[in-house]
Write a structure and sequence with these properties.
Layout (H helix, E strand, L loop, with lengths): L7 E5 L2 E8 L4 H13 L4 E12 L2 H15 L3 E6 L1 H9 L7 E4 L10
Parallel strand pairs: 2-3, 3-4, 4-5
Antiparallel strand pairs: 1-2
């Protein structure tokens, strides 16, 4: 999907877009990016995982924790995902805590 191990974090307003394989080693930068958006107390934080090929289960806790924190401020988390990542989120029950939208994409990931 993303080619030669390309991975990056892109933040545009209240959208956090992740691309590539999300191993435990990338957790801290992603957590930092999401924390920065939560500080804005948006009505909705959108987490775009459409171009993520693999996601460590460590990210499940980050997503649920972020949703809980944002809910206290009156907001919610909206996740866009597909394929294995979507199935992981559903199997783990994350869809009971956040809104998950299945998105299909056929094009290349956005540029960093």
């Amino acid at each position: 999907m993303t080619g030669e191990n390309q991975r990056f974090i892109q933040v545009e307003g209240t959208v956090v877009r992740l691309v590539g394989q999300l191993a435990v080693a990338e957790l801290k930068p992603v957590e930092k990016a999401m924390r920065e958006v939560v500080k804005q107390k948006p009505e909705t934080l959108t987490l775009d995982l459409v171009h993520v090929d693999y996601m460590s289960s460590s990210y499940l806790g980050l997503i649920v924790g972020t949703a809980s924190e944002l809910e206290k401020a009156g907001g919610h988390v909206h996740v866009k995902a597909q394929g294995q990542v979507l199935r992981l989120l559903q199997l783990a029950g994350v869809d009971k805590v956040v809104t998950i939208e299945e998105c299909k994409t056929w094009g290349p990931p956005p540029a960093p």
